[in-house]
């Protein structure tokens, strides 16, 4: 996958911004970064778009900036000169797509029909926008037409919000979602930066969906692991299950036959996407141990340990 698309996928949510006052672009970008979303699509729906992009690129370098609602060659040139790293259009115009590609830039055109999607694929594109998503049938439509297009991924925008976000992101052919709910016009005009950060942080938490998965208990032998698991099952009615390296009292505990990471054991935290969780935790300075990464047949991470211990326990992320 293209490195910029990979970064967008890791972030997971792309705020779509229409800004009337370029002076507010930098504090807005900083509010989004503080909330955990260092990417934005600045749309050419306003006259301030180009200046806003320039300001963000110059003063908030950690923000990945794209240009949206790009309709003409002139807008493509202005966006790229302003520092935009990717171009997004509301519809599929082969001429605009080809022009962007001729510039060596990343293009994510809007599509709504299989015909448009096939044209995009014939031009070598691996990700297209699905717009307006909800009005065009939402994730149900994408799942219905996905069969012939397994090599294509979508970035739905239009009607995506905090309530239906995970309906989209739980489908593995969706690379990210575009949204406006954390950057609404009244929030920007009112300079409610703390509110934007709060809503952004909530969106990230919803996307990652952290929850306690199970507790791992280090035992010195298979016999000790078996006794511990059976005791927990007897007391709490958990399901007993013998495994290769542990004995489980499902869904709460995993009793390891030999001591594993952590003095006492480990805490498994479930997440909607381990790969996105690793990226977002990295933004907070939390490191993961690459040598512990386990992947599935598609290359997606199933589990990985965090660096360090917490109260004598190691912590690892697991895919829900």
Automatic annotation (TrEMBL):
Q: In which pathway does it act?
A: Carbohydrate acid metabolism; 2-dehydro-3-deoxy-D-gluconate degradation; D-glyceraldehyde 3-phosphate and pyruvate from 2-dehydro-3-deoxy-D-gluconate: step 2/2
Q: Which reaction does it catalyse?
A: 2-dehydro-3-deoxy-6-phospho-D-gluconate = D-glyceraldehyde 3-phosphate + pyruvate
Xref: InterPro entries: Aldlse_KDPG_KHG, Aldolase_TIM, Glyas_Bleomycin-R_OHBP_Dase, KDPG/KHG_AS_1, KDPG/KHG_AS_2, VOC_core
Pfam family, any one: Aldolase
SUPFAM superfamilies documented for this protein: Aldolase, Glyoxalase/Bleomycin resistance protein/Dihydroxybiphenyl dioxygenase
**Entry keyword set:** Carbohydrate metabolism, Lyase, Schiff base
> So what EC number does this one have?
4.1.2.14
Q: Which CDD domains match?
A: KDPG_aldolase
The protein's GO terms of the molecular function aspect are: 2-dehydro-3-deoxy-phosphogluconate aldolase activity
Domain annotation VOC: ranges: 211-320
The entry sums up its family as follows:
Belongs to the KHG/KDPG aldolase family.
Summary of subunit composition and partner proteins: Homotrimer.
Q: What is this protein called?
A: 2-dehydro-3-deoxy-phosphogluconate aldolase
* Species: Intestinimonas butyriciproducens
């Amino acid at each position: 996958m293209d490195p910029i698309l990979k970064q967008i996928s890791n972030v997971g949510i792309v705020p779509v911004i229409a800004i009337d006052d370029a002076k507010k672009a930098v504090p807005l970008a900083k509010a989004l970064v503080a909330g955990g979303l260092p990417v934005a699509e600045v749309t050419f729906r306003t006259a301030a778009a180009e200046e806003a992009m320039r300001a963000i690129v110059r003063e908030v370098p950690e923000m990945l900036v794209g240009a949206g609602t790009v309709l003409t060659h002139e807008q493509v040139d202005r966006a790229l000169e302003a520092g935009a790293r990717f171009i997004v259009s509301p519809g599929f115009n082969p001429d605009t797509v080809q022009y962007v590609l001729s510039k060596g830039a990343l293009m994510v055109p809007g599509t709504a029909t299989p015909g448009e999607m096939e044209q995009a694929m014939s031009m070598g594109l691996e990700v297209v926008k699905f717009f307006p998503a909800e009005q065009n049938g939402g994730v149900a439509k994408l799942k219905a037409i996905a069969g012939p297009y397994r090599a294509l991924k979508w970035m739905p925008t239009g009607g995506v919000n905090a309530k239906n976000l995970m309906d989209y992101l739980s489908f593995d052919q969706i690379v990210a979602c575009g949204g406006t709910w954390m950057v609404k016009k009244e929030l920007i005009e009112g300079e409610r930066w703390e509110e934007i950060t709060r809503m952004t942080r909530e969106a990230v938490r919803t996307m990652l969906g952290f929850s306690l998965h199970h507790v791992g208990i280090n035992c010195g032998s298979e016999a000790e692991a078996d006794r511990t698991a059976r005791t927990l099952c007897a007391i709490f009615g958990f399901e007993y299950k013998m495994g290769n390296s542990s004995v489980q009292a499902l869904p709460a505990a995993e009793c390891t036959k030999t001591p594993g990471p952590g003095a006492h054991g480990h805490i498994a935290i479930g997440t909607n996407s381990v790969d996105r969780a690793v990226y977002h935790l990295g933004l907070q300075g939390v490191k993961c141990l690459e040598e512990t990464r386990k992947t599935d047949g598609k290359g997606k991470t199933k589990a990985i340990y965090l660096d360090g211990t917490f109260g004598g326990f190691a912590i690892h992320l697991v895919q829900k």
